[in-house]
Design goal:
The chain has 304 residues and is of the alpha+beta class. It contains 14 helices and five strands. The chain folds into three domains: 47 residues, no CATH class; 104 residues, 2-Layer Sandwich (Beta-Lactamase); 145 residues, no CATH class. It has a five-stranded antiparallel sheet, sandwiched between helices. Helix 7 runs antiparallel to helix 9.
């Protein structure tokens, strides 16, 4: 039988036995496991997705590492010889691990406390792991060993961090969009007042207004808004402009505000549309998007 790279000896033994009869039912397989001299704990250790280790209670030195350690972290038992977890932990998280290990070494933890820490793997740099430590006592309640069990959660953690980052950006977008539109409204009101004054003084007032506009950085605000918006919804504007060229810039802005979760009240205030007129505006949008009157615009926007 051809050996599969990365499988342990006990796993290979089991596979050789199963190769002799690959059609065993549950009962027959149970008897095979019971009768054969298979080290079932070792079999589990070879195939678990966790890294299980035993440590000296005094300094945390590695005394045993499950065979899965090489597959998950890249380290062989020889690599870990004489090492302690602090040799692999990210420097920013020393204190977090120290407290946990100290409590286990002194037998202070009755229930294992789960930690999320970054460990340095052999081939892929620092990655996120979730784990816990647990003291093992002798008959005199003295801690003789510390067991650690860790699992790679890199993909889950990165997804979680990305989600949190997007939530923060989303909140900032909401605030910046409101502030941006408030600035625009102030400028519009000033322009209207300028038109009401005598023609001789309009030129000077318009010059002052230009200075105010430059100071308020309206263009920069909108560019900053768009930069952050594209981080959260990278394909939103591309999809709209490609598939719905009839949409105006104002239409796309309206849909963008809906996409970041702004309320109808906020949108009507920002876009200077009466709340009761918002339904008419959105019905027009539906027509431009080719939607039926009964279709929900928000559901459509969330799919973009």
């Amino acid at each position: 039988m051809k050996e599969t790279k990365g499988q342990g000896k006990e796993t290979e033994r089991l596979l050789r036995l199963l190769e002799e009869d690959s059609n065993l039912d549950g009962e027959a397989l149970s008897r095979l496991l019971a009768l054969q001299q298979l080290d079932k704990l070792k079999l589990i250790a070879e195939n678990t997705i966790d890294v299980v280790c035993l440590h000296h209670p005094a300094d945390g030195q590695y005394l045993y590492a499950s065979p899965s350690t090489e597959r998950i972290m890249g380290y062989t038992p020889e690599d870990l010889k004489g090492k302690v977890p602090y040799d692999f932990i990210h420097p920013e998280q020393y204190s977090k691990l120290l407290k946990n290990v100290s409590n286990s070494s002194e037998g202070l933890t009755s229930m294992p406390e789960k930690l999320e820490l970054r460990f340095k793997t052999k081939h892929h740099g620092y990655q996120w792991f979730e784990g816990y430590t647990k003291p093992i006592f002798d008959k005199k309640d003295k801690v003789v060993l510390v067991l650690s069990c860790t699992r790679n959660i890199q993909d889950r953690k990165l997804a979680e961090l990305e989600r949190k980052e997007k939530e923060i950006i989303q909140q900032n977008l909401l605030m910046s969009s409101i502030l941006f539109e408030k600035k625009k409204n102030i400028i519009k009101k000033i322009e209207q007042r300028i038109l009401e004054v005598e023609p001789d003084t309009r030129k000077e007032l318009r010059s002052i207004l230009c200075h105010i506009q430059e100071t308020m950085n309206l263009d920069e605000d909108w560019e900053d808004f768009m930069m952050h918006y594209k981080k959260v919804h990278p394909d939103f504007y591309t999809n709209l402009s490609t598939h719905y060229p009839a949409l105006s810039q104002k239409d796309m802005k309206h849909l963008a505000f809906m996409r970041i979760g702004m309320t109808s009240s906020d949108i009507s205030r920002i876009m200077m549309v009466k709340k009761e007129s918002l339904r008419v505006v959105r019905n027009r949008l539906k027509k431009k998007l080719g939607l039926d009157a009964s279709e929900d615009l928000m559901t459509f926007v969330k799919r973009l």
